[in-house]
């Protein structure tokens, strides 16, 4: 059956939390308070549904956020206009079935209207070659490495240029046309609502 990518619903947060904390070492655990902060403040928080069940989720934020993550800060110290994928999780039984690609296609269609680049990180400890290969195939490249001071995990910091953005920005600026397929951010970001979080990508 087809994959449906849509905004998360509040009653699904417990299921999202369970998916996150069952993802393995590629994703650091969340608690309900941190997840709720994402729900309240992340401009992109979407789930994938397949065969009527949740198959994964992706959370993304823009560079203007005050998100408290050492990896996010690493990017913000070096880049001025980017959309940061804080975490992507695909249920183990759905990996390799196209859910990750569906998420990234959807996230890029959102980001390229608003940002010059997409950013994310992949943990290097423990062997994450399949995840690195996935990101490389999707156009990401390594721009550095960062060791998270709290978790002591080394991450490859990845970026992807969004080639459509310069023309879109020059033509429309911040006044994007009100079209059905031009999704608006979920929420107006409230920086004060963010709590310290740890990140990662797990496909």
UniProtKB/TrEMBL annotation:
<dbReference type="Pfam" id="PF00583">
    <property type="entry name" value="Acetyltransf_1"/>
</dbReference>
<dbReference type="InterPro" id="IPR000182">
    <property type="entry name" value="GNAT_dom"/>
</dbReference>
<feature type="domain" description="N-acetyltransferase">
    <location>
        <begin position="3"/>
        <end position="163"/>
    </location>
</feature>
<dbReference type="InterPro" id="IPR016181">
    <property type="entry name" value="Acyl_CoA_acyltransferase"/>
</dbReference>
<protein>
    <submittedName>
        <fullName>GNAT family N-acetyltransferase</fullName>
    </submittedName>
</protein>
């Amino acid at each position: 059956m087809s994959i449906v990518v849509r905004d998360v619903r509040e009653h699904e947060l417990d299921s999202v939390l369970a998916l996150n904390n069952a993802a393995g070492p590629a994703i650091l655990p969340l608690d309900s308070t941190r997840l709720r902060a994402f729900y309240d403040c992340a401009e992109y928080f979407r789930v994938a549904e397949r065969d009527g069940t949740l198959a994964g989720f992706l959370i993304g934020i823009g560079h203007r956020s005050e998100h408290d993550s050492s990896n996010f800060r690493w990017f913000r110290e070096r880049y001025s206009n980017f959309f940061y994928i804080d975490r992507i999780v695909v249920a183990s039984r759905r990996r390799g079935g196209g859910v990750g690609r569906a998420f990234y296609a959807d996230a890029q269609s959102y980001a390229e209207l608003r940002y010059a680049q997409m950013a994310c990180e992949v943990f290097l400890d423990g062997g994450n070659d399949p995840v690195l290969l996935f990101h490389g195939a999707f156009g990401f490249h390594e721009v550095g490495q960062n060791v998270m001071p709290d978790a002591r995990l080394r991450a490859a910091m990845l970026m992807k240029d969004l080639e459509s953005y310069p023309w879109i920005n020059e033509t429309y600026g911040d006044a994007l046309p009100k079209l059905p397929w031009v999704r608006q951010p979920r929420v107006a970001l409230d920086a004060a609502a963010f709590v310290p979080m740890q990140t990662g990508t797990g496909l």
